[in-house]
Amino acid sequence: MMQNPTYQLIHFYEVFISLFSVTYILLYIFLSFLSYYAILKHLRYQKYISEDILTRSNHLLGVSIVAPAFNEGVSIVYNVKSLLSLTYPKFEIIIINDGSTDDTLTKLITEFELVKIDFYYQEKIVTKPVRGHYKSTNPIYSKLLVVDKENGKSKADGSNAGINSSKYPLFLCTDVDCILKRDTILKLAKPFMENETRVIATGAGIRISNSCEVKDGFLHKVHFPKDWYPRFQELEYVRSFLFGRMAWSQINGLLLVSGGLGMFDKEIAIKVGGYWHKSLGEDMELITRMRKHMHENKLKFLIKYIPESLCWTEVPDSREVLLRQRTRWARGLIQTLFLHRKMFFNPKYGKTAFMILPFFLIFEFLVPIIEFFGIIALIAGILTGRLNTEYLIIMSVFVYIFYLLITLISIMIDDLLYKSYANYKELMVLIFMAMIEPFVYHPLNIYASLRGYWFFFRQTEQKWGVMIRKGFTTTQKLTS
C-alpha cells in the first residue's frame, strides 16, 4: 500500500534532522574539548613567558592602529584619547574620517591641534580619493595621524585608506568607538614575534560595553547590559568567542577575525588587495583571501586567537538595528562562500577546502534553512494529523539540553578565568537569558539570516545603515 507523500516527506525529514543533530552535537563536543585544552595551554604558557622581555626586544614589531570613523562626533575625542593611552613602545594611531557629515573632523582638529601636512601617500589599495593628512603640532599627540577622505560607503574603503597611510608591518583594525585594554597591542602582536611559522592574523575576545563604566578612556567596571537585546548578544559573544574561535585556532582553522579587533600582516593583506569594499562581511572575506593566497603560494601560515577579552564595543539595543546588522552578517556569509566557491574540496587549499569552508556552509549557512523547513514540516504534520509528537518532544528536549549545557559551560569557564561580572546576580541573569534565548532571541536570528539570504539571491542592494551611539557611562575624577 502506497504511503501518503506528505507522510513520507515528514518521515524523511525526521531521519535527516536526527542525523544532522547528532553530527552537529558530536562536532561541538569535539570543539568544546579542543577549546578547553587550548585555553589551559594558553594560561600555562603565559606563566613562563614574560611580556616585558618582548617590549624590550630589538625585534619588536611596530603596529599601526587603523580606525575608520563616520559621523562619530559625539564620542570621537574621547575614543581617540583612549587609543593614545594604550601601552606599547612602537605604534601609531590612524583615524580615517570617512567623509563624515557631522563635526567629527572639526573636533579632531580642535582637540588635538591638528594641521594639514604634506604626506607621501601610496595608493597600494584602491580607495575613494584622500583629501588630506593631518598631524598634531603638540608632541603629546605625535602618534596620531588623521586621514580625511571621501566617503566610500563601507568600513572597508576607510580601512584600506588607513592601511595605505600606515608605516608599520602590522596593522590593528578596530572600530573607533571600541574600548581596548591597555595591553591589547602587545597581546595581539606576541604571536607574530613568537612563532617561527608566519602568523598572518590574530584576534581576541570582544565583549559588550553597553552599561559598562568607563574612566579616563578605559573600562573601569564591567556590568551586565541593562537592555534585553544587548544581554542576548553578551551571551552570544561569550559562547562564540570562547568556545568556537578558540577551538578553530587550535587547529589553525580560523576563518573569521572580528572586524572590531583584528591584527594583520600588512604585506599579505596588501598583496591580496586589502578589504573588499563591496563585501558585507569584509573581515571573513579578507581572511579567506589571505588563506587562499598562502595556500596558492605554498607558504606555511598561522592565524591565532587569544582567549582574553581585549575589546569592548557598543552593540545594537533595538530590534530594528539588530535585525539590520544580522541580515547584513548573513548576507556577508553567503556572499563570501559564493565568491570563493571554487575553493571547496580543491586539494590546493588543504583544510580550508575540506574542513573549514564546508563547516561554514553546512553548520552556519544551512542551519537557518533547515530550521525553517522544520517549521513547515511541523505545520504539515499538524494539518495532516501525521505529527510524531513523541519524536518532536524527545528531539526538542535533547537539543535544548545540549545547547544549555554548552552555553552554561561557556559562562562558567569565562567567569572562572576572567571574572567578567561584578557580582553573582549578573551571572545569574546571564544564565536566565541562556534558558530563554532559544524561544525569544534565536527566532529573530533565524529570520534575519533567511532575510539576508533572500536579499543576496535577489541581488537587493544592501545598505549598511547607521547605529546611533549612546556612548558609555563615564566615571570622572573629582578635582578639588
TrEMBL record:
It comes from Flavobacterium limicola. The chain crosses the membrane at residues 12-39, 352-385, 391-413, 425-444. It comes from the Bacteria. Pfam families: Glyco_trans_2_3, Glycos_transf_2. Signal peptide: none annotated. Keywords: Glycosyltransferase, Membrane, Transferase, Transmembrane, Transmembrane helix. Residues 64-203, 227-391 form the Glycosyltransferase 2-like domain. Belongs to the glycosyltransferase 2 family. This is Cellulose synthase/poly-beta-1,6-N-acetylglucosamine synthase-like glycosyltransferase. GO terms for molecular function: glycosyltransferase activity.
